[in-house]
Every structure is written in structure tokens, then in C-alpha cells.
Specification:
Keywords: Phosphoprotein. The chain has 131 residues and is α/β, with parallel strands linked by helices. The protein has one domain: Rossmann fold. Helix content is 52%, strand content 18%. A 5-stranded parallel beta sheet has the order 2-1-3-4-5, with helices on both faces. Helix 3 links the parallel strand 3 and strand 4. Helix 2 runs parallel beside helix 3.
């Protein structure tokens, strides 16, 4: 799978990239929402891990732009702010697949990737049944 990590904190990007690469996935890095939007259109990652508070284009703005481009985009929020107002809104509007709170662990990321794999397999099976 191609996994994009979007966070303005270089240390967070590096740690997540290491965890994801150890799982055998291709990693795409973006430092802000604008770069994420550009890379999404070019590389079409299978999963995105998106921070909320970033310069140039915030996480919520980037999530909405990516979803406008591709309703099927699988996005997980990564944030240290459990009370960010966008969290409830994103859940209500089904904009994201889930949320990981900082500090996160390797298990948190692995569980998200596992959920995405199960979701993709289910989509394939349903597509085969309806074909």
C-alpha cells in the first residue's frame, strides 16, 4: 500500500514513516495540507494520516479538498488535541476513517492499517458479488 503521512512536525513524520516502512508499505511524506493535496493528486495513496494544525493549508481544509476530489479517500486524523472542534464534525460527516491521538504507538498505526486492509477486502468482495 501507498501511505501518505502529513504533519508539519518532522519528528512525527520520521517516526511514522519508520513504523509504516517496517510494515512493508511505501511512504509518501508531506509537511502541510497544500503539499498533501498536490501529492494526493499525483500519487493517489491508499491511506492518509493527516495532522490537523499545519501552516499553509490546515488538516481540515486539506481533508475537505481531498474528499471533494475523491470521496473514497481513506484518511485518518493524527492529533494531540482531543478537543479539536473538527473531530466531531469529521465523524458526523464521515470525512475520516478514524483518529489517532498523539502520542501514538506502533500498535495504533498498525490497527489503522489493518482496518483499511479489511475495508479494502470487503469492498473488493462486494464489487465481485455485484458484478
Amino acid at each position: 500500500m501507498k501511505i501518505m503521512i502529513v504533519d508539519d512536525d518532522e519528528a512525527v513524520r520520521a517516526l511514522m514513516a519508520e513504523i509504516i516502512a517496517l510494515s512493508g508499505h511505501e511512504v509518501i511524506l508531506a509537511a502541510d495540507g497544500l503539499e498533501a493535496l498536490q501529492l494526493y493528486r499525483l500519487r493517489k495513496p491508499d491511506v492518509i494520516f493527516m495532522d490537523l494544525e499545519m501552516p499553509r493549508l490546515s488538516g481540515p481544509e486539506a481533508i475537505r479538498a481531498i474528499k471533494a476530489f475523491d470521496q473514497q479517500a481513506r484518511i485518518f486524523i493524527i492529533t494531540g488535541n482531543r478537543y479539536h472542534p473538527f473531530l466531531a464534525q469529521a465523524a458526523r460527516e464521515s470525512l475520516v476513517a478514524g483518529t489517532i491521538f498523539k502520542p501514538f504507538s506502533m500498535v495504533d498505526i498498525t490497527l489503522c492499517l489493518g482496518r483499511n486492509t479489511a475495508y479494502s477486502e470487503l469492498e473488493e468482495r462486494l464489487g465481485a458479488v455485484s458484478a
